[in-house]
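Let's practice the habit of predicting before peeking. Look at the sequence and jot down your guess about where helices and strands might fall. Then scroll down.
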Amino acid sequence: MLENPTYYVKLPGSDLGESSFLNAVLAETDAGFLLDVNNVYVNSQNHGFDPYLFIDTLPLERVAQVHLAGHTRSEKWLIDTHSQHVSPQVFQLYEHTLSRAGRMLPTLIEWDYDLPSLATLLEEVQNVRRHAHAALGVLATEAA
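Done guessing? Here is the structure:
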């Protein structure tokens, strides 16, 4: 599996963008794609690109799993902390991703720090289902 990471600095001298890199590796390998939607959003805010256009360039037919997570805002950056609720902006990008994929994708909520109660986690699962339903309608209901 290949996952798109968060990054906080751009490598000097690199002229290959993240999307081009991911597409090239996936085209040359048999790897599945683990699409971390929160990472796309965090990177887009930190590096000034359109996350929707980024999603549109990816081979969504290769996605084996989607990750959603919360992030934390510092003075300068969004940090991929996995310690918060999934933000409304990430859920909107998730809906766009499912809509573009045209199918329900297995989805994992990453919450690694400052763990909430089980009730809160189950509410977050319901949020995922609600957003999937908004993106796909009856397909999401059948997959739930």
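How did you do? The helical segments are 18-28, 37-47, 51-56, 88-101, 118-136, 138-143.
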